Amino acid sequence: MRRNYIVNTLLLILLASVSCKDKIVKEANRELVIDSGMSRRTKPTNEQVIASIPAINAETGTRISSVEVSGRITYDARHQTSLASRVSGRIEKLLVKYNYQPVRKGQLIMEIYSPDLAAAQRELIFVAHNSPEMLAGAKQRLLLLGMSSSQIEQVVKTGNISYRVPVYSNANGYILEQSAIPTTPAAAGAPTMGQPAAGGSGMEGMGGGSPTGNTTATLPVATSTPVMIREGQYVNAGQTVFTIYQATNLVAEFAFLPSLATQLKKGQKLLFYPAGNKNAIQSARLGLIEPVFRNGQNFLIGRVYLDKNNFQVGQLLTGIIPVVYTGNWWLPKKAVWRLGTKSVVFRKDNGLYSPIEIQTGIESEGFIQVITDIAGWQVASNAAYLVDSESFIKVNGKAKQ
User: Is the pTM of this model over 0.70?
Assistant: First the structure.
């Protein structure tokens, strides 16, 4: 009896062991099933974010915005004059010591020793005594070299040769060395306007007085730096040595972002005032709009030609111009996160926020212009709350235009 009990017990233990082993094998062969909803919610923070922050829709329609721009007062390049030497020679005396030194029309600028002019005067004296029929040609040559008729007659009468050729200013204004590169702006006083200096009627023609046109180069601003040209230096015939900027006409220049290119046009009104003095606000019209590439940046220069000369060169300005935008979307600045040169919004989809790169335009009055088509999107009202510190280094993708 006891023997049967022991045998039955062993059989039960053996059956239980086999059943447990079979269950373990079945459990091992069973595939692991993961909830799809949980998988969608466990992605990295740079792909999806779970948050209860409110979502907003972008605004659309026509928007009128006032854009503030920075500007400054500079010279009107249409009224600048070049001062050149008509003969080759050596500078014996230089009276200009620094850039933007005020000068008057007829003021002596420098004296040049010219062997060519001396040779032409000797030829004139010889022709006057030996070949009177060639006298008119000899005088014409000296006229082309810059001598006045009275000086030529004086040479014929006395037989004395002038070795030093005086060069006089041909305009009132500020003088700038041709090779000088304008730097930082600084205020400059009004030039001394007056009658030509004594002797101004002599070699006044030595300076080439043809006005130059507008240029896209860096426009000069008043900065009193020493001139690099020195006494004893040689100049060539026709070489422009100085430029004279006339202070009777000034220009207000304003810098605009390239995104405003389609919004600006010649004759458009704007308001401007000296920086820090809104009480002196006045209106004007854009006289010229010029695209400029300078210091590695693209921007637009808008020029206002001033009728009143109550400003100083280098004076800083603040401009306000109304701009009308149509056909774009607008989001609050808080809803757009900046990643270097990229702009990112968090789009809400099935309760989750995903970072999407978008293309943006200008910023105005707390809103950012969105060029990407985001019609029907719901985006996070404050993108800064969804950025996970330094781990947020890339976006899920770029929105299609």
Answer: no
